[in-house]
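fyi for ur records
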Amino acid sequence: MARSPSPSTRRRSSPSRAKASAGTLAVSKPRHRKRGPNVSEKEYVGIDLHRRRSVIVRVNEQGEKLSTIRVDNDPKLVEAAIEEAGEHPEVVFEATYGWYWLADLCSELGATVHMASPSGLNWENRRVKNDERDALDLVKKLRLGELPEAWIAPPQVREIRELVRYRAKLVRMRSGLKAQVHSVMAKHGVLPCRLDMFGPGGSAQLDALRLPDGYTNRIGSLRDLIAFFDREVTMIEREIHQMLKDDPGYNAIQQVPGIGRVFAAIFVAEIGDVSRFSSPDKLCSWAGLTPKHRESDIKVVRGRITKMGSRLVRWAAIEATAKNRGTKKIQADFRRIAKRRGKQKAHVAVARKILTLVYYGLRDGEIRSLEPKAA
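which gave:
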C-alpha cells in the first residue's frame, strides 16, 4: 500500500501557479534577457525645436523613453544631448522655424536625419499637447513608419533658395510701394496715363503732379524707395544667374516658351532634386496643382486644387501660361479648355503641362518634345 506524502515532504506550489490553477489558463509574462555590456541597441532622438530652446527625448528600440531634457539652442549643448544616444542614432524633428543648423549638426554627428512635414501632423486631435509629447509622437511615427517625411535640401540648394525667395520678397514689397503711389493719386482724382506708372511715360506724369507738400514728399520718398528696390532686385537676379548658369536643367527649361531666367531659377531652387519624384504627376501633386480627391464607398468627389505645395512653384507655373505663352500644343489646349471650362481652370490645366515639361527638363537636361526652332 502506497504511503501518502507527509505534510513536511509535500511540495508547496508557488503563488503564481496556485493563482493560475484556481482560474482559467494563465499566460506567463516573457522575461527579457538583459543585454550584455558590449551589445548596443539603436536609439531614437526626437527634438521639438523652438527659437531659443528645444526639448530632446531619447527612446530605445522597444519604444521606452530613456530621458527627456530641455536645452538652450546652443550647438554644443544640443550635440552633447544627441551624443548620449550613441553612434548613428535616428534623429527626427519638425520642419519649423530655423531648422537648417540642426539638420547640418545632426548630419555631422553621423545621425540618420528625418524631418517631418507639419502639414501631415495632426497635433490638434490630441487632448494633451506639450513639447515632450510632441517629441515622443515624432519618434513614435518614425518607428511605425508613419512619419510624413519632408525632403531635406542640401546646403547648396538652400543657398539658392534663400536668394530666390528673398528676390520674391523684395518684389512683393516693391509692389506695395507702387500701390501707395496709386493711392495718393486716387485721393486727388488723378488717373494714371500709363499701365506702368514707373516707366518713362508714367514718370513724366508723376514729375508733373502739383500736389500739397505732404503728398508730394510722400510720392518722392516712395519713388526713391522703388528705385532702390529696383537696384537690389537686379543685383540679386544677376547673382542667381551666375550661380545657375552652368546647370543643365536651368538652361533646358528656359527653352519652354514663357519660362525665362526668373521662373527657371524658381523651379530649380524650389524643386531641388527632381529625381525624388517618380513621375511628373507626383511633381504636380507636390506643387498643389492637382484636385482634391474624396472617396467613400461608391461616392467620389473631386474638388479644387489642393494648393498644399510650394506657392512659388505654383505661381511660376501659372504665370508662365499668361499672355498666350507656351508651346503651340499648350496654346491650343488652353483655348480648348477655356471655351469649355473658363480661363481660370484653363490656366491651371496648362500649368500642369508646363510643369511636366519642367520635370523632364530638370531630369534629362533637355526637353525632346519641344518644337524645333526655326532657322
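The two ends are 120 Å apart (CA to CA). thats all i got for now
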